Amino acid sequence: MYFSINFWYLKLFYSTGIYLASFFIKLIALFNPKLKKGVVGRKETFNKLKNEIKPSDKTFWFHCASLGEYEQGLPVFEGLKLKYPNYKVVISFFSPSGYEVRKNTKIADLVVYLPLDTRRNARRFLDLLNPNCIVFVKYEIWPNLLLEIKKRNLKCILISAVFRKDQRFFKWYGRLTKSALFAFNHIFTQDENSKKLLSKIGLNAVTVSGDTRFDRVSNQLSINNSVPFISSFKQDKLCVVFGSTWPDDDKLFIDYINKSDGDIKFIIAPHEIKTSYIESLKSQLKVKTVCFSNMANKDLSTYSVFILDTIGYLSRVYSYADIAYVGGAAGSTGLHNVLEPAVFGVPILIGKNYKKFPEAEVLTGYGGITSITNRADLETALEVLVKQSNRRKKQGTINKSFIEKNRGAVIQILDYVRI
Q1: Predicted local confidence at residue 201, as pLDDT
Q2: Three-class HEC string of 338-395
Q3: Is the pLDDT of residue 3 over 70?
Q4: What distance separates the 2 farthest-apart alpha carbons in the chain?
Q5: Of 123, 270, 211, which Cα lies nearest the Cα of 410?
């Protein structure tokens, strides 16, 4: 009785918090374009479901927090779509950055925003969708929604999950979120440590399958990765790609680019593409620079820097890299995907804040990735890689082999899902 009362209060406290958050999000959205997209998009979710999904439809529902989780889950989504071609696919995002980029993805019949996690929204969402199978990616845990899924006994799995002992699931105050984990019929983790943590709280329907991103990036090798304008830009020169960069990353490499003698080509692909930021970046560069947005009718071979102020090319552009710097770890924004350049056998540089990214930790230990802390570190690391082709080849081989050894998560997940 004591437990149930406490648990009831936890649910009430959480739900009240969601309603308050909803109010403040709508208020802040008046001044924040990104938040506004989410607020407007969530208003359309139920109508979209009502108009596009019939009660007789058989459906898969795939949920991703944002774009990174979508890319992570995509090989599973594609595999299930191929395995069950008569099922409709609904993909939901929580973040506008995921929804806006993939709202027209061909893999889905419908893409929507996930409603805020109130009990009423959870019931209404599931009433309209009535999914035959649900797949959540990585660690999107919404208690009201998952507890309603459990109540309805719907088939639900979590893939590419990673858990750490400092997360709320394993703390005394995390009873509500911990209970939500039991809505999953099965959890596929990236590592053995995550499985052990789940076992300690009584969750044993767990398989260590690895990270589906290895399968995702491996698939990149089977497609045509040529980008004609990058070929025109690079020519036959050594090329350094700075991918998914933030201002904290720029501070590390701008000086190096400005001191270059013209024998190296540099490609910068910022994570966020805002006109003011791109102009600021260009103003700091003292060498000849061209942007994707104004490259028309220009002889790209005469430029030293190419700023990729657009989206959708980076995973292919990495195939042109002789050296790659992956952004996000110089500051606190979070390291971006090092597997994308690794699959092409490219040596990789990253910032210092990478400790919560298992693949980066492993590859740093193996020697395929070099972590740098300041401009001097970056210049030293780049000079070594620029001048020593054998060193580039050795580090690149480490990275490529790591990808090859860790494929196979998708096969295990697809084998489990039987409807």
Answers
A1: 95
A2: CHHHHCCCCCEEECCCCCCCHHHHHHHHHCCEEECCCHHHHHHHHHHHHHCHHHHHHH
A3: no
A4: 76
A5: 211
pLDDT at position 203: 96
Distance (Å, whole) CA 170 – CA 189: 16
CA 144 to CA 337: how far, in whole Å?
31
Residue 220 CB neighbours (<10 A): 17
Amino acid 284 reads Q
Residues 6+ apart with CB under 8 A from 309: 270, 273, 278, 291, 292, 293
Structural domains in the chain plus CATH codes? 43-210 (3.40.50.11720), 223-405 (3.40.50.2000)
**167-196, pLDDT tens digit by residue?**
989 988 888 999 999 999 999 999 999 999
**Strand pairing category for 186-189 and 206-208:** parallel
Q: Is 344:400 a contact under the CB 8 Å cutoff?
A: yes
Summarize pLDDT for 327-374 with one digit per residue, the tens.
999 999 999 999 999 999 999 999 999 988 889 999 999 999 999 999
Burial, 89: exposed, middle or buried (Cβ in 10 Å; 0-12, 13-18, 19+)? buried
Q: Can you give the pTM of this predicted structure?
A: 0.81
